[in-house]
Amino acid sequence: QVQLVESGGGLVQPGGSLRLSCACSGFPFSEHIMTWHRQAPGKAREWVATVAPGGATFYTDSVKGRFTASRDNANNRIYLQMNSLKPEDTAMYYCQDFDTTTWGQGTQVTVPS
Fold first, then answer.
1. What is the rounded CA–CA span in Å between residue 10 and residue 100?
2. Residues 74-84: tens digit of each pLDDT
3. Is the dihedral of CA 19, 83, 33, 30 positive or negative?
4. Whose CB among 9, 62, 63, 84 lies 3.0–4.6 Å from 107's, allowing a Cys bridge?
């Protein structure tokens, strides 16, 4: 059974940092593309970043230079290091196993204005 469990969200002041983690199980993690998405209140879910099996990363323009996605294939985890956070980054953040389209339950990130 594919399972994804996010953690690390919270309330942070503008300019601050958070590190999200996604623990994965039930599939050959090192072979799968993993993605991060977010959904702000009243808005559609949007793609944030992709981490390829070999570690290559891709980002949506709004987070380039501020967010860094990574993976630990030995421990079946992906991470999203978020720096210079802005109020517009406030959202529920989700990890996804791209190959099986399985989602985690999400972790809330709040950056007050």
1. 28
2. 999 999 999 99
3. negative
4. 9
